[in-house]
Amino acid sequence: MSDNWNTRTKLVHGGSRRSQYNEVSEAIFLTQGFVYDNAEQAEARFVETGPDEFIYARYGNPTVDMFEKRIAALEGAEDAFATASGMAAVNGALTSVLKAGDHVVSARALFGSCLYILENILARYGVEVTFVDGTDLEQWRAAVRPDTKAVFFESMSNPTLEVIDIAAVAEIAHAVGALVIVDNVFSTPVFSRAIEQGADVVVYSATKHIDGQGRVLGGVVLGTKDFIRGTLEPYMKHTGGSLSPFNAWVLLKGLETISLRVNAQADSALKIAEALEGHPALARTIYPGLPGHAQNALVQTQLGGKGGTVLSLDLKGGKEAAFRFLNAMTIPVISNNLGDAKSIATHPATTTHQRLSDELKAELGITPGLVRLSVGLEDAADLIADLTQALEAAQG
Length: 396
Description:
Layout: H1 7-13, H2 39-47, H3 62-75, E1 79-83, H4 86-95, E2 103-107, H5 112-124, E3 128-132, H6 137-143, E4 148-154, H7 166-174, E5 179-183, H8 188-191, E6 201-205, E7 219-223, H9 225-239, H10 245-276, E8 282-286, H11 296-302, E9 310-315, H12 318-328, E10 333-334, E11 344-346, H13 358-364, E12 370-374, H14 380-394
Parallel strand pairs: 2-3, 2-4, 4-5, 5-6, 10-11
Antiparallel strand pairs: 1-7, 6-7, 8-9, 9-12, 11-12
């Protein structure tokens, strides 16, 4: 692969490795183990492995290796490790570097399962976690300490779509030697340049935009070769969070079209946000691509002006109005995934973030009337018409 290739070329050809049959589509190596020519080769393989040498599917697999290399080329990372799910990636990125007595600073606006890892699992094993408003740089400065081991945040928060300044937070964290771990799902690997902007480790739920068609679970952690192979891989291969070869193949196919898909979805999301903003049924229309969004200027520099594929609509009338809106839609489906070719609507307060206390929901802006809309590949005009009639129905 050429380093001079542009993004869409890398997404089609990056990381490809062909068998002796020179197949066009990447091969799926459905095997849990590998055969050695002799005992001496087996012994040598366990001491040191080369790029074309594998031991066990939990440690590595040719199909998974292709996915790892392709996503690393897209992200601009030295290396990557694919995982069974996005949460396996988040857990691995954090747990592999932390031990009892360490200190972590995290943005408070997080997906519910991420918050569970930080508040419950890490705390259970003696890791101290300080939560801050991720958009407030003064809170980051006040929270980091000389013994802070890592900082963690979603570059665009779920579901209120706050955008955190990666470069600024990285500068604060690096001043005390802390590792910067960024969950980059909503920003997507197409729009974001998180590593270039200062992230040390980038995490994706590949279940979302990378698959993009609701087929499989998957995740990936990206970073330096030293971190991926020296810190993360030993933890992941011994705790069993590796990606299956079949899922890796599906994700490879997803990478071929991700740039086309997310650009189209983001363009539609902006059109929808502009069309619905100010509707009398809405208390707020939240979309980072709108000029009135609090971090819109940051979107221009950090995300190349793309506001992402998701918007959130806060309906007047609370849960009852939100449910009437959801039930009146005819095109978007009601589910809890995002980044799909199909538009998906979610009521976070009763689903993805239901375990949060009412006080924390209110603090994060997750109101009873908030609906998260992941925009798919349907015609934008059809979506606008459908969402408009659903908003009319929501008013009762």
